[in-house]
UniProtKB/TrEMBL annotation:
This is ATP phosphoribosyltransferase. Residues 58-247 form the ATP phosphoribosyltransferase catalytic domain. GO terms for cellular component: cytoplasm. GO terms for biological process: L-histidine biosynthetic process. It is found in: Cytoplasm. Catalyzes the condensation of ATP and 5-phosphoribose 1-diphosphate to form N'-(5'-phosphoribosyl)-ATP (PR-ATP). Has a crucial role in the pathway because the rate of histidine biosynthesis seems to be controlled primarily by regulation of HisG enzymatic activity. It catalyses: 1-(5-phospho-beta-D-ribosyl)-ATP + diphosphate = 5-phospho-alpha-D-ribose 1-diphosphate + ATP. InterPro entries: ATP_PRibTrfase_cat, ATP_PRibTrfase_HisG. GO terms for molecular function: ATP binding; ATP phosphoribosyltransferase activity. It comes from the Bacteria. The lineage of its organism: Bacteria, Pseudomonadati, Spirochaetota, Spirochaetia, Spirochaetales. SUPFAM superfamilies: Periplasmic binding protein-like II. Keywords: Amino-acid biosynthesis, ATP-binding, Cytoplasm, Glycosyltransferase, Histidine biosynthesis, Nucleotide-binding, Transferase. Pathway: Amino-acid biosynthesis; L-histidine biosynthesis; L-histidine from 5-phospho-alpha-D-ribose 1-diphosphate: step 1/9.
């Protein structure tokens, strides 16, 4: 590893699978950062960008690694970054300041509080009010134990029960509780919903998209703790290194260009000179260009180019092409876009 390389935390798991995780491999490839080895579990190398260094790992660990300086940046979900920040704050009294600098618009999930559907409480506040009136120790299960501690402490304060239940511990599942009162959070490695269903805990935290799996287990959501998506996170200290900061800007600009181009195509078409005003009026009415349409003038025809969203229900691509022909356009070509970069100012660091 060279000091002139940008060290990137490359997440193992579904994101490394070319058929899952929003296809991170293709996203990087389209941005100009072709990987080798990543899809096979590593080691990851960037075959056309030797100024990037791939550090394979779990997103659960990336927050700590950025704090220690092992990583300059990481590709990770908001939830796991938040979990590490919460752990360092709660367990070690360390303030970890990380910054999300780009959303990859992938991996969108909800982090929710859950309990059995048979529980009459529909909110976490009602659930905790009932539990604190019946028992001294609340049992919780979560893959993100420190997020659970943070969440429950806030809710206990809201119902006036924090002082009585301020003790807490994070432990392996069903190890003897370290405290007699408060909350004990059992860290799980998946299937949290089964533990709630079978009476292994009072409350749990789960990662979900639609909530259908939870309903299948006879569970219900009593709170939405946060939403999470995959993004680029950095240790702000990188801004003090001009060389690495420049590499970071280059990396982000090209990724942004690829994300910005998704669901967009370029339309190229010819317009007779006498139809120019009609075409430009239509383009203006439907905001089908940015600053101004791109025009290559010719003797009898001019060639226009515009970007069009392929999934815009207000002005579908098929309708745009049809309307263009009605206004006099001809020879309409539809060209896929790999990247669309507005300018450098789009990257704010």
């Amino acid at each position: 590893m060279s000091s002139k390389q940008l060290v990137i935390g490359m997440p193992a798991g579904s994101l490394a699978n070319p058929n899952r995780g929003g296809n991170l491999i293709n996203l990087l490839d389209a941005a100009g950062f072709k990987t080798r080895g990543y899809e096979n579990g590593g080691p990851t190398t960037f075959s056309t960008a030797n100024f990037l260094f791939g550090w394979d790992g779990r997103p659960q660990e990336f927050g700590s690694q950025m704090m220690l300086g092992e990583l300059d940046i990481a590709i990770a979900g908001d939830d796991w970054i938040h979990e590490r920040v919460a752990e360092l704050k709660i367990e070690y009294s360390e303030k970890l300041e990380l910054e999300k600098v780009l959303s990859l618009k992938r991996g969108g999930v909800r982090i929710v509080g859950i309990t059995n559907d048979s529980n009459p409480s529909d909110t976490v506040e009602d659930c905790l009010s009932k539990l604190t009136s019946e028992k001294k120790l609340i049992n919780v299960v979560s893959e993100m134990p420190y997020l659970a501690v943070e969440w429950l402490q806030e809710k206990l304060k809201a119902i006036g029960k924090y002082e009585e239940f301020c003790s807490w511990s994070v432990q392996k599942y069903k190890t003897p509780p370290k405290n007699d009162t408060g909350i004990v959070v059992y860290e799980t490695w998946g299937k949290t919903e089964a533990k709630i269903k079978n009476g292994g805990a009072d409350i749990g935290i789960e990662i979900t998209q639609s909530g259908s799996a939870l309903r299948n287990y006879g569970l219900k959501i009593i709170d939405e703790i946060m939403t999470s998506e995959t993004g680029i996170w950095i240790n702000p200290a990188i801004k003090d290194d001009p060389e690495k900061l420049d590499l970071l800007k280059m990396f982000l600009l090209n990724l942004h260009g690829t994300i910005n181009a998704e669901n967009r195509v370029m339309l190229l078409f010819n317009v007779p000179a006498e139809k120019k005003s009609s075409i430009e009026k239509y383009l203006s009415e439907y905001n089908l260009y940015a600053e101004e349409p791109t025009i290559n003038p010719g003797k009898s025809f001019a060639q226009y180019s515009i970007q069009v969203e392929t999934n815009n229900p207000r002005i579908p691509l098929a309708k745009v092409r049809y309307e263009l022909t009605k206004h006099g356009a001809c020879s309409i070509d539809t060209v896929p876009l790999l990247s669309s970069i507005p300018d450098l100012e789009i990257i704010q660091l």
